[in-house]
Amino acid sequence: MELIKHECGIAMIRLLKPLSYYKEKYGSALYGLDKLYLIMEKEHNRGQEAAGIGCVKLDTPPGQEYIFRERAQGSDAISRIFANAHQRISEELAEGSDPETAPFVGEVYMGHLRYSTTGRSGINYVHPFMRRNNWSSRNMLLCGNFNMTNVDEIFDSIVATGQHPRLYADTFILLEQLGHALDRENERLFSEHTEAGLKALDLSHAIARDLNVTNILKRCAPSWDGGYVICGIVGNGDMWAMRDPHGIRPAFYYKDDEIVVVASERPVIQTAFNLQIDEVKELLPGQAIIVDRDGSVRIDGILPEGDNARCSFERIYFSRGSDRDIYRERKTLGSNLVNQVLKAISDDIDNTVFSFIPNTAEVAFYGLVEGVEDRLIKNKIHDIQRLSKTGNLTDENIANVLKRRVRREKVAIKDIKLRTFIAEGSTRNDLATHVYDITYGSIRPGDNLVVIDDSIVRGTTLKQSIIRILDRLNPRKMVIVSSSPQVRFPDCYGIDMSRMGEFIAFKAAMALLEERGMRYVIDSVYHRCKEQDDLPKEEVVNYVREIYAPFTDEEVAAKIAELLTPEGTRAEIEIVFQSVEAMHKAIPDHPGDWYFTGNYPTPGGNRLVNKAFINYYEGRTSARD
């Protein structure tokens, strides 16, 4: 319902055969480029602000370009970067060149889809980033799905080596850190092969051949605190993708004797290469998949695997629901809510319409409705047994029982994207109301209306649009259902959820503290957070959890409903949330729940949540100020 700018998408492709092989078998030397395009389009949900691609050719003679990059901003960035790449290829072919020598026709590819999660924008912040050098083994392309919580520490460490980063942003800083480690690896090999008597091109080729990406990653990764999948290509053709030790950000791969591919989501690889689910493997936490320039593939453990913190919100909202396991989990999230929903409508199934708020909540809606149907079947059995006992088991009475159904309708419709920015004040608010439309006649006046959404983070669209427009159908009671628990804490691992004051659950808890004369709790949390300002991140405690401690989940939910009910609403409004415990049962393999509990998997998370609260208390807007 509400756009959450979340984690980015990555794609990596390494062709393991000569380009002529793909031209003969698949009819095109652009096989790798075309597959990269398909993967990125299938991952378009992961980043709609910008996109970029990179390509490295192998064994290019000196004097010919072998690294290519194209980047663009905007929701149409994918189509534009590939159109530009194909135009450059066409221009080269028009001059009579062989397709295999054209730009962007190579063996190693990288793609990236970006959502800005730190407020920084502009083409300079669009991945992949590039490091240039006259030695092929010192060039590097870098992209990733990550946010580091300790950028300051990494920055200080590379400045201490004498480097001078151009910008203070985690991608730039990681590029410099990895670039420095790449230089050290080159210097190690330079000394080793010089002592062995190699010179000139022989020396250069030997360094390119023997470069060890594992050494580079093991030099840098121990200093990283955050959620990440970091991908790189060295100019010599080495390729890697590494996942954080807690598995916060997702990564999957497939390899055979023709190709290695890495992407953020499993079904994307399945679709692009027509694979069965078991053929696509998860890159485990702390591991890197590395493809050397000679095409050898290995999985190396760079960091020890930490506590499992695979992101639960990834399963609830971020990833495509076409993944087999995610589809099942989302249905379970919906079925988990049956008892709470039936309680909210006093078990009056006959006079209730069930619906969902487009479009990501649709699968959870199926699970909810199936659960209600199961309850209705039990009710029908009970009614037939009662008719039998009372001697009223007639065909007509049986038919009346059997024809009872769960009433499901498509009540809310996502309408055209209205240009609300052209208006001001009350006119703008009126336009925002109409972002959604309703299906008139879909419920009877006086019915209950249950609508399920995947999450309620800020509640803005609920208040400005959804509740207002649904109230026009004249329901007696409206039950808004969230398939996720209450989002209470900011994310710091790559999602645009970093400001405390934006969360409706936080607003509700703060309002309850004020109403009940507990302002001292707010002040105490602030002072305890401030006292930790100078502590190492490993010693910081998340005191923001104390804001919620005095209240039950139901009390916070009731206050959220009150805050989100627009003035003049006729229907009674109740909001039902998934419990954290039920969520974990539905998604057992992805226990990362810091959004809901404040249990951050890395020390940097505790530091940043405290900083976010300090900024809120002091009236600043950014969690990273």
Count of separate structural domains = 2
CATH homologous superfamily label of the largest domain: Aminohydrolase, N-terminal nucleophile (Ntn) domain
User: Which class of secondary structure composition applies to the elements?
Assistant: alpha+beta
Rg, please? 28 Å
State the helicity in percent bands: 25-40%
Number of helices: 21
| The CATH topology of the largest domain | Glutamine Phosphoribosylpyrophosphate, subunit 1, domain 1
Low-confidence stretches: 418-425
State the total count of DSSP E strands: 20
Mean of residue pLDDT?
90
Under the CATH scheme, which architecture of the largest domain would be assigned? Answer: 4-Layer Sandwich
| Amino- and carboxy-terminal Cα gap | 29 Å
Q: Which sheet architecture does the biggest sheet show?
A: 7 strands, antiparallel
Shape: globular
* Order of strands, widest sheet: 3-2-4-1-10-9-11
Q: Tell me the name of the CATH class of the largest domain.
A: Alpha Beta
How much of the sequence lies in strands comes to 15-25%
Task: Map the helices and strands.
Elements: E1 9-15, H1 19-26, H2 31-42, E2 50-56, E3 67-73, H3 77-94, E4 108-114, E5 129-131, E6 140-148, H4 151-159, H5 170-195, H6 200-210, H7 213-220, E7 226-234, E8 239-243, E9 252-255, E10 259-263, H8 266-273, E11 281-282, E12 287-291, E13 297-301, H9 312-318, H10 324-335, H11 338-344, E14 352-356, H12 362-389, H13 395-402, E15 407-408, E16 412-414, H14 425-433, E17 436-438, E18 448-453, H15 460-471, E19 477-482, H16 504-515, H17 519-530, H18 553-564, E20 572-577, H19 580-586, H20 594-597, H21 603-617
Parallel strand pairs: 14-15, 14-18, 18-19, 19-20
Antiparallel strand pairs: 1-4, 1-10, 2-3, 2-4, 5-6, 6-7, 7-8, 8-12, 9-10, 9-11, 12-13, 16-17
